[in-house]
Amino acid sequence: MPLSSTDKRLLARAVELSATALALGNRPFGSVLGNAQGNILAEGQNDECTSADPTGHAEMNVIRRIAGLKPAQLKNATIYASGEPCAMCAAAIFWSGIRRVVFAASGQYFADLEGPSATLLPLPCAELMRHGSHTVEVIGPVADTGAETILQQAFPNQK
User: What is its EC number (predicted)?
Assistant: First the structure.
């Protein structure tokens, strides 16, 4: 399914946030929540290193910021992520009521870059969502976003 211009714009913003996270000393992941009109409701970046919070993933930070929104507002929202949401983030997306995920780099790509030292729970986002009681559309990986280049900067000796 081709992405809309809004999807491309908001995914590009998530990738920009991943570069910011890396520049601040965190793992390079960014996320944006957009409504059906393409307005940004919240954005976040990975801060697990600088905050010393292992749940400080970009998607988790976005979901924390939208805690006051009503389920009806989230049902038509899309969360954009520079990297495939991990199992923790995917579950949080599901429980928040967000019904659509678009991501750039795959979790497998990141795992391959990080190499044998990686601490992984390799459950693809779409696989986790298939087990839910409501549908969450998952689109990705999306090529040519620049996300893989930023990941390579974080792990230059791996691939």
Answer: 3.5.4.3
